[in-house]
Write a structure and sequence with these properties.
By secondary structure, the protein is an all-alpha fold. It has a domain of 169 residues: Up-down Bundle (Chitosanase, subunit A, domain 1), CATH 1.20.141.10. A three-stranded antiparallel sheet has the order 1-2-3. Helix 8 packs antiparallel against helix 9. The longest helix has 24 residues.
Amino acid sequence: MDRNFARALALVLESEGGWSDKKADPGGATMKGVTLANFRRYVKADAGKADLRKITDAQAATVYRHFYWDAVLGAELPDGIDYAVFDFAVNSGPGRAAKYLQAALGVAQDGRIGPATLAAVKAKPAGVVIDTLCDARLAFLQRLPTWPTFGRGWGGRVASVRRQALLMSATPQVPPGSSPMMPASPGEALTVATPAGGATQPPAVPPAKPPSSGLAGILALIALALGSAAAWVAHLPCNLFGVFCP
């Protein structure tokens, strides 16, 4: 989803690093992963390498959004899959990333993500799509003649993308401004609304229940029986000898 663009871009920039101008790299001179050609296309038409080296984060984000994220419809892909396809596009081109996603989904590989691809990607578990895509991406890189030179870095990058993409797909996204309600843990005191100007108050404790009415009745009968026995003993002579007792 589009809310993942900033997070995905931060991860891509970690992989891309800073300035690079190696002759063995087919992409040519790059800064923060942005090629001179793309810098000229989206930022400054007559830019040279010196301008590219001074690219700002905002300028880099502009290039990445238009040339890669929007090209693979990152805003419409499920969480995690958006980042996996986006990073693949940055590393190997949007068209190839789209085709490999389509191959993983079993739909026509035309290199353009459209309604059929989006319907298919939303019908499959994200984890399965991510694993299939990363496996195919790694196999593609291993077939390149430059694998002996860049293979170690590429392999580590694909492993990192797989790990982060799976994490993104498994982490529930909380809409901005919302706060999920969590139940109190056992033994944790609950609180009620805070009155104006006062501290948070604990909930009122209900009064203790009076003794059971059944127990009270039994105690009353025992007291009555004891009282009667005491009175009979006090009048024992009268009872035995017929003596008048007041």
